[in-house]
Design brief:
Blueprint lengths: L1 H4 L1 H24 L3 H32 L2 H4 L5 E8 L4 E2 L10 E11 L4 E3 L3 E6 L12 E9 L7 E7 L4 E4 L3 H20 L2 H12 L7 H9 L10 H17 L4 H19 L3 H19 L2 H18 L7 H26 L4 H25 L1 E3 L2 H28 L1 H8 L3 H17 L2 E3 L3 H22 L11 H11 L1
Parallel strand pairs: 5-7
Antiparallel strand pairs: 1-3, 1-6, 2-3, 3-4, 3-5, 6-7, 6-8, 9-10
Helix pairs in contact: 2-3, 5-6, 5-14, 5-15, 6-14, 7-16, 8-9, 8-10, 8-14, 10-11, 10-12, 11-12, 12-13, 13-14, 13-17, 14-15, 14-16
Amino acid sequence: MTVLAGWWVGVMVVGVLVGVAMVVGVGAVRVRRGGWRMAAAVLLAALVAGAGFGIAAAWREYRVATHPLRTAAVGTYLTVIAVPTDDPKPLPAKSFGGRQWMVEADLREYRHGTVPVRAGGAVIVLAAQPGWPGLLPGQVVRFRARLDRPWRRDLTVAVLRAQGPPVTVERAPWWQRAAGSVRANFAAAASHALPRTEAGLLPGLVDGDVSRLPDQVREDFQHTELSHLVAVSGTNVTIVLATVMISMRLLTIDPRVGAVLAALALIGFVVLARPSPTVLRAAVMGGVAVLAVLLGRRKQALPALCGATIGLIGWSPELALDIGFALSVLATVGLIVLAPRWSHWLEERGWRRGPAEAVGVATAAFLLTAPLIVALTGRVGLLAIVANLLVEPVIAPITVIGALGAVLSCAWLPAGVLVLRLTGPPLWWLLFVAEHGASLGISVSLPDGPRGGFALAILVGGLLILFHRITRPPDPSGADPPEERSQDSRAAR
């Protein structure tokens, strides 16, 4: 709310929270019953935490609102020094002009005239000149840009339209250079091992590198609700961690050694996929998900998910408006809370465990994320669950083999090429499902924005209540429900 409405609204909300917290605190002291005192303590902790987050968000929004670039005229030409925080992302190609790239960066200094101004803040750079696609996160660059206003409220200070190629001021840190080298070797091995389309898709599935992904494949994935596969998510991390931990269990290796190897695999994946806030969020969510699935401690996983979400938002408040973050949290909630019960219900009716879990996970993730997708796009794909079920068996092999090929390509390129050729058939199947699913064009158009999102959320809420009643386990005592007992008594009379 603070980021969307302004810092002064955040200050007002904080004032209300503090006032309510004082009232609750006084009530907690006077209440003598243990149950009510515990409830008041929990409420008080929530209010204090909310006030703390509100203060932090209001301060961040105030700094953005009073930034010097916010008062500068649109179209002003600047000389900028900035540090990219993520890899350049290609924008959809236009019918005229060259391809543009979007770079998220932290501002260090800008100059309008002769006097430099040292000021921080998040900026978005739009560039069409050569030299931008090869930038690394953490690499300090200088360039000429034209000032523009941000198109959304997410703590972004300004949009900078680059007027030329970047000039390197400082090299990227060694870990970012190492990650860039691994990604480059991986892409080179994929281009040698696979056709052009598959070679452009594989890095996106493994490490989120979509710089070579064809626009047509991108559109097909959007129409079939498979776009989450080419973004680094908790699924990637879950597959990597599950592979390591299951392998250690099959080899009867000490669980503590397996935990260390899983941690090393997680660190290696984060380095490969870039240690950006999005990747770190995926690592946290994937870790929570794998704990829920492999250790069977779903009751502990939900508090862990809540704690991870709160911690990440406190560390980076702009994640509260990040669509990928919201979709990841909702999908993980579905995996932890809904999917196990639905899968168990299907198993009790004769389904095999694998298909039952696949249907439960795909259905839960789709239902919980559909309202947000409708609010953004104004449509919901009716083939989303089917498409995800059809491609789910090939995602884990592609991720595992791709990660292994990425490691081998750094040591010896021919070995990496040989391993990555094994991903050809599953990649063909994934592209086949996406292309033919998109060609059917089966989707329902709804109003976009909050109206469509709330409408579908109400429908999803009704479906969840219905599924809850259907999948409700029977009474352990074996007694009939009150409704059935009353019907039986009436029949007997």
